[in-house]
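**User:**
Everyone, produce one record:

**Assistant:**
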Amino acid sequence: MTLEEVIGSNSTEKKMDAASQALEELLVAAQRQHCITVGVYESAKLMNVDPDSVVLCVLATDEEDEDDIALQIHFTLLQAFCCDNDINILRVSGMRRLAQLLEEETADSNGNEPRDLHCILVTNPPVQPLQCQALQDVSSFCAESRCRNQWVPCLELQDR
């Protein structure tokens, strides 16, 4: 390995860690302000009705989801829609951490299934825009990734 490769990989790792932290902060802030849509179908409906309000699409999977053909087809369609509408996209692994951040239970007290965390949209309503540094940091990370021809950057959320 050359010095540039060692320094470059360390720098990239730090950027990814910072982006993961910013994403976690953004999701918590967005949920507090009711600027979040959870679920593949719910997300698709919202993007069809009001794509201009969507500022980030998070597509989440774990290893066991990689073989789910239907989910991968949904992801492909969502990614294409996001690219056509200039919506930032992130692929994320760490479904358990997402559930922790969004305070999801395995099932609620009524026995209902938990929400589908495979797709999460962050919206930015025009009336009261979501203003947080984390949104700017995540958007910058996505823009930098696109400049490196990585159209759908991947992040890993660590359990805590």
About this structure: The chain has a mean pLDDT of 86. Residues 3-32 form the longest helix (30 residues). The chain has five helices and five strands. Helices lie at 3-32, 40-49, 69-84, 95-101, 133-147.
